[in-house]
Amino acid sequence: MAWILFLILVAIVLGIIGAVAHGLLYLLVIGIAVFLVALALGVVRLRKGPPVR
Fold first, then answer.
1. Residue 48: which of 4, 18, 15 has the closest Cα?
2. Cα separations (Å) of 17 from 12, 34, 42, 47, 53?
3. Do the beta carbons of residue 28 and residue 18 sit within 8 Å?
4. What is the C-alpha to C-alpha distance for residues 44 and 3, in angstroms, rounded to an integer?
């Protein structure tokens, strides 16, 4: 779960830098892609259910 939160944080930082910095629009696109991957991983992890011990 920590990896998913880390990926979301990275996506937010890349998105902000990509939106603010002139000429770094590709960082915004990469940030969006990382965010979508993090969401997909989160959904897959939630659908699996809690780990069995």
1. 4
2. 9, 14, 24, 32, 42
3. yes
4. 13
- Tell me the Ramachandran region of residue 22: left when phi exceeds 0, alpha when psi lies from -120 to 50, beta otherwise: beta
- CA atoms within a 13 Å half-sphere pointing along the CA-CB vector of 36: 6
Whether 15 contacts 35, CB under 8 Å:
yes
- pTM summary value: 0.78
Task: For residue 11, report the phi and psi dihedrals to the nearest 5 degrees.
Answer: -65, -40
For residues 30 and 1, what is the distance between their CA atoms, to the nearest angstrom? 21
Instruction: Read off the pLDDT of residues 8-18 as tens digits, 9 standing for 90 and up.
Output: 899 999 989 88
